[in-house]
């Protein structure tokens, strides 16, 4: 039985699988139409040549994909299955699965890949390709063809149950007449017999044969004789031998060397020893000549492609030479006009540069004036407004205010106001800066607002530069002023932390926080500018009605 299965392999693949009609192209080039005409005239080499010209010269990606599809079919028919697979995978590169008008060619490519894989005995790969073909096919008849091919692959793999399920699925959609029905009936009967050697497949096989004879389907008759020869090879060898002879005769009429080889194998197995020896000799001769022809065909396809590419390269070289000659004729004119254009361009660029430079200089002057005004406004705000507000709040809440303190602070404000452009910085680098910060922050404490300091030590400020200290003084002062103006806080905590490479100051109050969608303005904007000047960062964290948290992070000296 195993020998029977092996001998049947070639026939099932050759005659069990079907090739659907080619996808329709909206427009076809002259070379494409000529290639199709030559193919229908059985002039495969010439057809291959023109399809290759289309593949290498067409600008229509779908036409290129179809050309490779045809070339693969020609290669497959010649026994060059690996070459056919290469052409099909190349065809797929020119197709887009997102474009519906590419679907027919995609289905055809995957169906051809399934058939070539079956011919190479890669049945699992073949089944996968047939599934892809089904995915892209929306034609009912085409779907039935692909399903039949997939069932054949399952049968060759030995998965008879899966094959029969698919055959039954196709059978339900087929009318009990015509070549397609005969093919399906033969394949299904053969699968049942392979699954169960005791199954009586003769009625179905003979019915399919009669349909094929009536339709004068020689290829179908060849397939039927092959299956009948195998079916009777064990139970009725004489009948098997008769069908093998008929199979061989049909193969001769079809000029099908593969069919002749399969028929000779059956004749060798079923004939008496004397006749079998003659058939074996004929088999060897035919097999050798067939292999030689197929090798020649493979080389011929490669040679055709070589000549096509060579002609294309020669044409490109000729076009390049003509272009170089035309270029030389106009080169002198180009030089003259290009020189003139460059000269005019330089004049325009120089004029534009002079005008832009003049505008830029004027803009720099205006920016310098605005910057000077901004700095002056900032100094007035930082050195006068906040200090005056601090003194005012101290007078308002401190009933036992020290007169000397009041005179000293007013005098300091007076000195700054007298010469706003000169900033006195005497205390930022001394060792008592932490005490001055403590005094500044606690001066904002009132009967209703407590101010608590954590971590404000002399050691913490030793690694902070004088400039940074001065900016931080004004930043903290600005935060406290905004606290008294807006927060309604009862408790304020300011924590000082020292880390490797940077310090941080965290301000926390239990006030009303920042309203939703509100952003810091005016004084707090100045605070952001100041922290940027010393290379630090400021972070606001607030929920309306739940207080405010501000963190200042700045580098050490």
Q: How would you describe this protein?
A:
The chain has 557 residues and is α+β, with helices and mostly antiparallel strands. Helix content is 71%, strand content 6%. The chain is built from 19 helices and five strands. It has helices spanning 2-16, 30-40, 44-57, 61-77, 81-93, 103-119, 123-136, 140-157, 160-171, 178-195, 202-214, 218-235, 237-254, 257-270, 273-397, 403-418, 433-442, 466-487, 523-533; strands at residues 450-454, 491-499, 502-509, 537-542, 548-555. A five-stranded mixed β-sheet has the order 1-2-3-5-4, covered by helices on one side. Helix 11 (202-214) packs antiparallel against helix 12. The longest helix has 125 residues, at 273-397. The two termini are 94 Å apart. The model is unreliable at 1-16 and 421-427 (pLDDT under 50).
Topology overview:
Elements: H1 2-16, H2 30-40, H3 44-57, H4 61-77, H5 81-93, H6 103-119, H7 123-136, H8 140-157, H9 160-171, H10 178-195, H11 202-214, H12 218-235, H13 237-254, H14 257-270, H15 273-397, H16 403-418, H17 433-442, E1 450-454, H18 466-487, E2 491-499, E3 502-509, H19 523-533, E4 537-542, E5 548-555
Parallel strand pairs: 1-2
Antiparallel strand pairs: 2-3, 3-5, 4-5
Helix pairs in contact: 1-8, 1-12, 1-14, 2-3, 3-4, 3-15, 4-5, 4-6, 5-6, 6-7, 6-8, 7-8, 8-9, 9-10, 10-11, 10-12, 11-12, 12-13, 12-14, 13-14, 14-15, 15-16, 15-18, 17-18, 18-19
């Amino acid at each position: 039985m195993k020998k029977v299965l092996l001998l049947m392999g070639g026939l099932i693949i050759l005659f069990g699988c079907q090739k659907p009609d080619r996808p329709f192209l909206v427009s076809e080039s002259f070379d494409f139409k000529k290639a199709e005409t030559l193919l229908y005239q059985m002039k495969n080499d010439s057809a291959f040549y023109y399809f290759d010209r289309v593949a290498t010269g067409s600008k229509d990606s779908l036409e290129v994909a179809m050309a490779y599809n045809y070339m693969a079919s020609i290669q497959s028919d010649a026994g060059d299955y690996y070459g056919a697979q290469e052409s099909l995978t190349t065809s797929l590169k020119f197709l887009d699965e997102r474009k519906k008008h590419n679907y027919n060619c995609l289905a055809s490519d995957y169906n051809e890949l399934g058939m070539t894989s079956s011919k190479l005995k890669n049945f699992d790969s073949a089944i996968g390709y047939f599934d892809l073909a089904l995915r892209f096919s929306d034609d009912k008849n085409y779907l039935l063809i692909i399903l039949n091919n997939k069932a054949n692959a399952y049968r060759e793999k030995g998965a008879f149950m899966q094959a029969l399920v698919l055959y039954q699925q196709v059978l339900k959609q087929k009318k009990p007449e015509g070549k397609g029905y005969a093919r399906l009936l033969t394949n299904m009967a053969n699968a049942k017999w392979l699954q169960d050697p005791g199954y009586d497949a003769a009625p179905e096989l003979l019915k399919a044969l009669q349909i094929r004879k009536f339709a004068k389907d020689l290829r179908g008759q060849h397939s039927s004789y092959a299956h009948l020869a195998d079916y009777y090879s064990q139970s009725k060898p004489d009948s098997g031998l008769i069908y093998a002879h008929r199979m061989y005769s049909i193969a001769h009429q079809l000029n099908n060397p593969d069919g002749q080889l399969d028929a000779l194998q059956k004749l060798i197995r079923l004939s008496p020893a004397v006749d079998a020896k003659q058939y074996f000799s004929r088999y060897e001769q035919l097999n050798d000549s067939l292999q030689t022809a197929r090798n020649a065909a493979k080389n011929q396809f490669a040679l055709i492609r070589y000549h096509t590419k060579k002609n294309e390269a020669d044409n490109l070289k000729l076009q390049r030479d003509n272009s170089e000659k035309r270029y030389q004729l106009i080169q002198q004119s180009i030089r003259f006009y290009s020189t003139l254009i460059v000269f005019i361009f330089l004049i325009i660029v120089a004029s534009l540069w002079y005008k832009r430079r003049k505008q830029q200089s004027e803009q720099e002057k205006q920016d310098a004036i605005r910057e000077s005004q901004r700095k002056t406004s900032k100094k007035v705000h930082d050195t006068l407004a906040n200090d005056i507000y601090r003194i005012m709040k101290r007078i308002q809440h401190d009933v036992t205010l020290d007169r000397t303190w009041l005179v000293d602070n007013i005098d300091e404000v007076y000195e700054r106001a007298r010469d706003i452009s000169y900033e006195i910085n005497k205390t930022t680098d001394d060792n008592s800066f932490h005490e001055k910060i403590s005094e500044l922050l606690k001066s904002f404490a009132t009967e209703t607002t407590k101010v608590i300091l954590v971590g404000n030590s002399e050691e913490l400020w030793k690694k902070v530069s004088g400039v940074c200290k001065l900016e931080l003084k004004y930043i903290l002062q600005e935060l406290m002023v905004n606290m008294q103006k807006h927060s309604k806080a009862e408790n304020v905590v300011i924590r000082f932390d020292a880390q490797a490479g940077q310090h941080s100051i965290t301000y926390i109050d239990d006030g009303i926080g920042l309203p939703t969608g509100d952003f810091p303005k005016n004084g707090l904007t100045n605070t952001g500018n100041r922290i940027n000047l010393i290379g630090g960062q400021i972070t606001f964290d607030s929920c309306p009605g739940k207080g405010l948290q501000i963190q200042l992070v700045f580098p050490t000296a």
